[in-house]
Design brief:
heterotrimer, A: two-stranded antiparallel ribbon, B: about 325 residues, 11 helices
């Protein structure tokens, strides 16, 4: 029977049945290599599955060679890459089987289990194998280019997805298990109550330690931070946005824009250093000292000074939040069509009137979105306040010591600062993390929903 | 409005101006504070600030400067390693996700991906730090430390003292940091790819090119300034992150790791070193003396300068991008 | 400055009770530069009070630039320079406070641009911005009646303006401009975005406003110019080629360029 010559890999529809062998082989190869990828992932997770890696690598090599021959017969091209890959797979199979269980002596301070290497190799060859098998499964049609590359891109996405799901699931799982409603209703306290009793006409003092485990004050502290930060950063952020958009020339606008973005980009730790330097300024006993450091009254009525007050900490956190609000304001102002603004000015309305009655109401949803994102930031902000916070057992109000959920998580690891084995709380760090996660992710999600609704807003003819 | 009737200085524009200047003034004050604070360290230690030893200890009053070891080289190297690891992992993944959402998805897949990434971007760094400890036990320890070691193997395995202990190593910090970077980078890259005009892509597709070819030859070159500025912003973010690295790597390291690229050791970056020095004894019983505090300011100044440079380059690129779109 | 405002506000208050005070515009050696290009070259033109003047000419000859300079909206574009004199009732526009000028010279744009507010708020935007003491309901009704929208919209005053059709939106923009009782109304190709039916309603409204307001319409639709205007100015490459009463210019044009343009030989 006359053999057909296929020009340019174009699949001639009438010859479909002749390519059956290739397609079958390629299908098998695809399934197998896909399985190899999954196996590679599993091997990276569990050491014991390492035994399967070598046989898998050999099988992949064999499949690739088979594929090569089928491709040469059916499509009349010699895809030498397949041979190269097969040889490489073979070589790695041999290499892995020669490696000891634990590799040592490489330039690392420790030893590496062989499964790390074999898992990565399996992933690499699995991916390339999938690419080629899919390509020839579709008989090398032009459309096959895209479809074959799809798995490679999907692979990265799925890996990221898996990683994040693991995090969230782990926190939720552990958080739910350790959930105690009492944690939410009690404020943490670890103090000693000095009681004065009278015996035989003489006062005697006995010490009564009070200890309560709870995170109520941390929750209120987080909310307090969010509130104070919003109050401070909203006017300033909106002013920056409005000023750059409306009033500033190119140079002044550029400077303000740069400074605002820079505040966000420079590390939070730099702001923390500045905060600590600033805290050292007022002397003990002055009013500023109380305002900066935050104070509260303990059970005995004695005044206790903390590291910093909420007002102080919020002032610094708002330096991080101002750029977010400014950017949202600018987005809102930019989205108003030019001729609507001109229409207002053409009527003789002043620029201020146009601003307050037309442009700012239009941008209000954008500003609110920015504000919610800023609140989420304030709740999670730890870099600035982790050297400035305390436990908050003396009360939670703007002039008290700073405390927040994020700080609590951090503190539980380095709990020496509390000076007290906070045993109950130490085990429930996942509950705290869970609550913090709900707060921040909740705010961010609401902000994103607002943003989506903005684009559906009536925008004009 | 009453305010606009006062035709003198106090009107709305001035109010906005004053408030808008607050960030500028704050930035200037911060820079000046850092510069002034680091004078003491520069005077006392001079170039020894860049030496290879770093020890924290109680400073004697009027101690001989030669006895103080505040070399920042290990910290700088740590920063370099951590940024390198995190960006090398996060950037390709983010780029793949962005390409998937923009060019390779049909129907609602792109929207779903964007939503997911958007929600993830709200997770604060402390959560990643917490998970670092967990990940270590679950993933790292079996692979890199080895379980069930005994001296009876031939050749004998290294002693437990050699292995990464207390759940911290540079690789772990870099990995957690890359998890933080991915939801940050993906929207930026997504915007950059999205800004490529649809007509160009359609023209390419209508000529018969497949999607991958279009992405490679049209979309990415066109979006290249946006991609590069996203990369720079990612570098900037990972530069300044201090909670994750403090949690997963540790606060300070005393010398460069030997061998130098050993990522299973602890190379603490600049940010956590600053935290240690400025905290003045936070969580440890050592107190940091005045020279130490000044070194913290100096290290902060270094970080600030690096950040400014990268930020300047980003702004320049964004300006170039705007000019290109106008034309 | 305070006395000027009071005088103009009094004048506007008088107008909104029904007695119109149209103003006339006259330019003398008007030159407009746009980024060092001379767009309008030495223009002397009169827009008589109470009449409708059409400015016609091919695209790019400076019609819109001229119109925008009459209420100094050209200053909002970067690079636009106006030299010469423009007189509104004998006062030089270029020396006036632009905000006060724009209260007396209103503008209707090519693409309808209602504010994202209700219909009623759209009309009352001007009086609120200028703090005019007028009866709100009466103003809304009068302006909508003049724009031939009252019957259609009298029960829908609290709807959002974006829900109207394009033709209704454009007439709403006219009504909105009428609410501040200007002396002159500038219309920049008002029917170019509209379909024929809406265009007809628009033309009816424009003719109804004749006598109360001076209207200056820029158009490249010659039928419209012929139907609506009293005077016609033909602008070509920034120069005033011909000016006169509509009938005379269209039926007996003096200049060959005018004749060619009217007969469609340009473009």
């Amino acid at each position: 029977m006359k053999k057909n010559v296929y020009p340019d890999n174009i699949n001639n529809g009438r010859r479909r049945n002749k390519l059956n062998n290739l397609r079958v082989a390629a299908s098998i190869a695809t399934l197998f290599t896909a399985g190899a990828i999954i196996m590679g992932g599993l091997i990276l997770s569990f050491n014991s599955l390492d035994v399967f890696s070598v046989p898998l690598l050999f099988v992949i090599a064999g499949l690739l060679v088979t594929l090569f021959f089928f491709v040469r017969r059916e499509l009349k091209i010699s895809q030498y890459w397949l041979i190269v890959l097969a040889l490489m797979a073979l070589g790695s199979g041999v290499l892995v089987s020669l490696l000891p269980t634990y590799l040592q002596g490489l330039h690392v301070h420790g030893i590496i289990h062989r499964s790390f290497v074999s898992g990565l190799l399996l992933l690499a060859f699995g991916l390339s194998g999938v690419y080629y098998s899919l390509f020839y499964r579709l008989s090398a049609k032009p459309r096959a280019f895209d479809v074959a590359r799809y798995p490679i891109i999907i692979f990265f996405t799925i890996t990221a997805l898996v990683a994040y799901s693991l995090i969230v699931i782990h926190i939720v799982q552990n958080g739910v298990v350790q959930w105690q409603w009492s944690l939410f209703t009690t404020a943490f306290q670890s103090q000693s109550h000095i009681i004065e009793t009278w015996q035989n006409g003489w006062p005697t003092f006995s010490v009564n330690p009070i200890y309560r485990a709870g995170i109520l004050n941390h929750i209120i502290g987080t909310l307090m931070l969010m509130f104070l930060t919003s109050v401070i950063s909203l006017p300033i952020g909106v002013s920056v946005g409005v000023f750059i958009h409306e009033y500033a020339g190119a140079k002044l606008g550029g400077i303000i824009n740069f400074s605002t973005t820079a505040l966000r980009s420079i590390s939070g730790i730099i702001l923390a250093v500045t905060a600590i330097d600033l805290l050292a300024v007022p002397k003990l006993g002055t009013l500023w000292f109380s305002i900066f450091h935050g104070f509260g009254h303990d059970v005995n009525g004695m005044i206790q000074y903390g590291r910093s007050s909420f007002l102080f900490a919020s002032a610094f956190i708002s330096l991080l939040v101002i750029p977010v609000i400014a950017k949202s304001t600018q987005e809102g102002l930019n989205s108003i069509p030019v001729d609507v603004r001109e229409g207002s000015l053409a009527m003789g309305a002043s620029k201020d009137f146009t601003l307050f009655h037309l442009q700012l109401p239009w941008s209000l949803p954008n500003i609110i979105t920015g504000l919610m994102l800023g609140c989420a930031e304030a709740a999670g902000a730890l870099t600035i306040i982790f050297l400035l916070s305390g436990v908050g057992q003396y009360g939670v109000s703007p002039l008290n010591e700073t405390t927040s959920l994020a700080y609590l998580i951090f503190d539980i690891k380095f709990w020496q600062s509390l000076g007290d084995p906070v045993s109950n709380l130490k085990n429930s760090q996942f509950v705290v993390a869970f609550v913090l996660l709900i707060m921040t992710v909740g705010f961010t999600t609401i902000a994103l929903i607002l943003k989506r609704n903005l684009s559906k807003r009536y925008k004009g003819v | 409005m009453k305010l606009s009737n006062l035709k003198f200085v106090l009107n709305i524009k001035t109010l906005f101006f004053i408030l808008a200047l607050v960030p500028v003034i704050a930035l200037i004050l911060i820079t000046v504070n850092l510069a002034v604070g680091s004078v003491h360290a520069i005077n006392t230690l001079g170039l020894r600030l860049f030496s290879n030893t770093f020890t924290l200890g109680v400073e004697q009053i009027n101690a001989n400067p030669a006895s103080l070891h505040y070399g920042l080289l290990p910290a700088l190297w740590g920063t370099f390693l951590v940024v390198l690891i995190s960006v090398c992992i996060a950037f390709p993944v983010s780029l793949a996700i962005a390409i998937l959402a923009n060019d390779f998805s049909r129907g609602h897949l792109g929207t779903i991906i964007r939503w997911f990434i958007g929600v993830l971007s709200g997770i604060p760094p402390i959560i990643y730090a917490l998970m670092g400890a967990v990940f270590f036990g679950w993933f790292f320890f079996p692979k890199f430390a080895g379980q069930g070691l005994s001296a009876s193997t031939n050749p004998p395995l290294p002693l437990p003292g050699m292995l990464p202990t207390d759940a911290s190593c540079t690789l772990l910090g870099g990995l957690m940091l890359s998890l933080l970077l991915i939801p940050f980078l993906t929207p930026l890259l997504d915007d950059a790819l999205h800004s490529v005009p649809g007509d160009l892509k359609e023209a390419s597709l209508s000529l018969g090119a497949n999607r991958w070819h279009t992405v490679k030859t049209i979309t990415i070159p066109f979006a290249l300034p946006g991609i590069i500025s996203a990369l720079l912003l990612g570098i900037l973010t990972s530069l300044g992150e201090s909670i994750i690295v403090a949690y997963c790597i540790g606060f300070t390291s005393s010398a460069l790791p030997k061998p130098i690229f050993d990522i299973l050791q602890r190379a603490a970056p600049l940010t956590s070193t600053i935290a240690m020095l400025a905290g003045g004894g936070f969580s440890l019983s050592t107190t940091v003396g005045p020279v130490g505090k000044s070194v913290a300011s100096f290290a902060g100044l270094l970080l600030l300068i690096i950040a400014f440079v990268i930020l300047g380059v980003t702004f320049y690129l964004q300006l170039k991008m705007k000019r290109r779109l106008v034309q | 400055m305070i006395t000027d405002t009071k005088k103009i506000n009094d004048q506007i208050a008088l107008s909104s009770t029904g007695r119109a005070v149209p103003g006339g515009i006259m330019t003398r050696s008007l030159e407009i530069y746009y980024r060092n290009n001379k767009v309008i070259k030495g223009l002397d033109i009169i827009f008589p009070p109470g009449k409708i003047t059409a400015i016609i000419g091919p695209s790019g000859c400076g019609k819109t630039t001229l119109l925008r300079s009459l209420n100094r909206l050209s200053e909002l574009t970067n690079g636009c320079n106006v030299k010469g004199q423009i007189m509104l009732d004998g006062e030089d526009i270029l020396n006036m406070d632009p905000m006060l000028l724009r209260r007396r010279v209103g503008m209707v744009f090519q693409k309808p641009n209602p504010f994202p507010k209700t219909i009623r708020e759209n009309i009352l935007y001007g009086p609120k911005a200028l703090k005019l003491k007028v009866d709100h309901d009466m103003v809304v009704r009068t302006c909508l009646e003049k724009a031939a929208l009252w019957n259609e919209l009298k029960h829908r005053l609290h709807e959002n303006a974006f829900k109207l059709s394009i033709g209704q939106q454009q007439r709403l923009c006219i009504a909105r401009t009428l609410a501040i009782s200007p002396e002159v109304i500038l219309l920049d190709e008002p029917a170019s975005a509209l379909d024929p039916v809406s265009t007809a309603s628009l033309e009816t409204s424009i003719l109804a406003m004749k006598g109360e307001y001076t209207q200056i319409i820029v158009t490249h639709n010659m039928n419209e110019a012929r139907k609506v205007s009293d005077y016609v100015a033909f602008l070509y490459m920034g120069n005033l080629v011909e000016y006169g009463e509509t009938d005379k210019v269209f039926n007996h044009p003096e200049r060959p360029e005018t004749r060619d343009y009217i007969n469609g030989k340009f473009y």
